[in-house]
Specification:
558 residues, three-stranded antiparallel β-sheet, 25% helix, eight-stranded mixed β-sheet, 18% strand, alpha+beta
Length: 558
Amino acid sequence: MRILILILTVIFGWITTNDVQQSEPVYDLVIYGATSAGVAAAIQAKRMNQQVILLSNTDRVGGLTTGGLGQTDIGNKAAIGGISREFYKRINTYYQEDQNWKWQKKSAYKDGGQTQTEAGEEAMWTFEPSAALQIYEGWMKEEGVQVVKGELLDRKSGVEMEGNRIVSITMLNGHQYVGRHFMDATYEGDLMAAAGVSYTVGRESNSEYNETMNGVHTQLRAKTRTGHHAANAINHNFVDGVDPYKVKGDPSSGLLPFINPDGPGEEGQGDHHVQAYCYRMCLTDHPDNRIPFEKPDNYNELDYELLLRNYEAGEDGFPWINSAMPNRKTDTNNRTGFSTDFIGQNYDYPEASYAERQVIADRHRDYQKGLMWTLANHSRIPEKIRSEVARWGTCKDEFAREDGWQEQLYVREARRMKGVLVMTQAHCEGLEVVEDVIGLAAYGMDSHNTQRYVNEQGYVKNEGNVEAHVASPYAISYRAILPEREECVNLLVPVCLSASHIAFGSIRMEPVFMVLGQSAATAAALAQEAGQVLHDLPYDALRAKLLQDKQRLVWQGD
């Protein structure tokens, strides 16, 4: 009987548990998290003839790429290759079809310079969330990827380990998945954490990795170490003179909501703060597709008093970046001192339970709903702002919710693994260069604000914003997606990878996550084929396959 079972195991890829009557299929690669990285990884695994399953912890695959982030952030897009670039080519193909222009003629669409980055380029870099979703779902069906939606990992006891290997993972619904390799492609790093892999949350001090852009920074730094300007103390901040107290000039009345009463902390020191989250809104001004902004039932005007005072103190900027997407839609992002970022209200999210995360996500949505209603309707908002905001609204045809809002919160940063190699500011600046390259990053060192505080002059300010250019696209190390060997030898982490807060702020772009997902899946397949653990995979073999599959590993441009 045991011989028969062994034969079946080899032929059909099944293993038995202690109860031979209960058997589960053994996957070559189990991917938890159907973000852009997870989707790219699953497609690559299928192309390498792997038995792969993609477990989505949400009901909608694609993460932020299908959740509103249609303005592709990357920096120099020539750094992107492989499946990631193929996705943007498919976006271009999609919009060549007249049938996909329902609310606008193709000839009328003008973006902000993102659609093409070089003459004759076949990729398109701006798109609707629904377009990305249609492409992802059709692509995975085309490749034969098995996807299971709504699977939530049992984070307490759902990871079965044998030594430093993951054997299986079990969901809250009892579903168990057995695999040879596993990948954590979530924004939160739940599988990584449940497997006992070391990680961190928040900002390191500058001294930890010999950085200059990490930790608390209330003062303007003129330049990075490579001479590039960093305007982190100016952008997205309040104008001078905004009073922080409920009764102006009266500290005894208490601080207005969302201000840290303990102050910003010591300059350059680390803390548990993560950069602010928001919903990356997809708006429209088409009257037949627009849902007007509504005041939420739990609206509290005091939550927006700082917004109103900021305009009264002299702010004249528009409180969003409204980037044009096809079909008279937008990708709308944070701008100025009080905007879509719910600053300081996400510290607990990375480690929170599923229920607690939902509360935080709902609170973010309610805050943003109230913000948009205030901007469109409140008499203390300048008329030029009110009239412009009021002509926009959420889309009827994008997301499942009746109010037109998405479910996917923009989790800009959560857990970050402490792996074999930690990517730092020095890698971003080109002062340190890795040789085991699995992809290139090109975005500047970027962090949204993490807190509000009262400065020495008695006014409210934001803290945590960083916008520092990098000299050119730079290499990401294979070791940065691997846990320490003694912790786990069959897990890859392409999203919550091993990076300092400020380096992660540069790497954390959706096209790069796709690149890293593809490279991670490639490593898993090659390691299995060679009978090696991930840490022993010869880099030359990995590099050869990545180049064969059109990944871009060496920057040769300006």
